[in-house]
Amino acid sequence: MTASLSELSTYLGEKLIGRVNDADIAYGELTVHVEPRDLVEVMTFLRDDARCQFISIIDVCGADYPSRAKRFDVVYHLLSPKQNVRIRVKVQADEETMVPSITDVYPGADWFERETYDLYGVLFSGHPDLRRLLTDYGFEGHPLRKDFPLTGFVEVRYDDEAKRVIYEPVELKQEFRNFDFLSPWEGTDYVLPGDEKAKTN
């Protein structure tokens, strides 16, 4: 398998000169790194070329690396059923970089790109309907960014009296603020509820 992936990597390097920045093989999959401006051309080649035939898009997702200038990786997973091979295409972007939408090449990328926009804030130029997919209307922020607060900003609940969903600021109870993150079964000075018999004097 590694030999065929290595051959495919060499083939792509020859056919897409100047379009593929880097290619590496890890965990039985070939990863190709591409600039945003070349993304649509590379994806079209991967779909249409007789040797590749990556006709099936499996996923589009994001990864956040806040310490980098281009903090986001947009990762595309493709499958070639005829060749029985998968490939991963990566594009780096920051909060202002517009990544070209590939919905004209792979119509199935529509909701995947919307999800990546919703959860990471990656902008896709040319997308037919780029709006949030998983979070609610009026939601602020992008929950899978590493700098997004763990508790969020508001909590949502259904109010029976008002007969609607209401938003309230997040309120952490004091006992959760002072939570002992060490193992609760070792080294605590207090008895946990239900653990009274385990403690001996």
TrEMBL record:
The keyword Nucleotidyltransferase does not apply. It is an enzyme of class 7 (translocase). One of its GO terms (molecular function) is quinone binding. SUPFAM superfamilies: Nqo5-like (SSF143243). Residues 32-153 form the NADH:ubiquinone oxidoreductase 30kDa subunit domain. It catalyses: a quinone + NADH + 5 H(+)(in) = a quinol + NAD(+) + 4 H(+)(out). GO terms for cellular component: plasma membrane. Its EC number is 7.1.1.-. Its main location: membrane. InterPro entries: NADH_DH_suC, NADH_quin_OxRdtase_su_C/D-like, NADH_UbQ_OxRdtase_30kDa_su, NADH_UbQ_OxRdtase_CS. It is a peripheral membrane protein. Keywords: Cell membrane, Membrane, NAD, Quinone, Translocase, Transport, Ubiquinone. Belongs to the complex I 30 kDa subunit family. NDH-1 shuttles electrons from NADH, via FMN and iron-sulfur (Fe-S) centers, to quinones in the respiratory chain. The immediate electron acceptor for the enzyme in this species is believed to be ubiquinone. Couples the redox reaction to proton translocation (for every two electrons transferred, four hydrogen ions are translocated across the cytoplasmic membrane), and thus conserves the redox energy in a proton gradient. This is NADH-quinone oxidoreductase subunit C. It comes from Mesorhizobium qingshengii. The gene is nuoC.
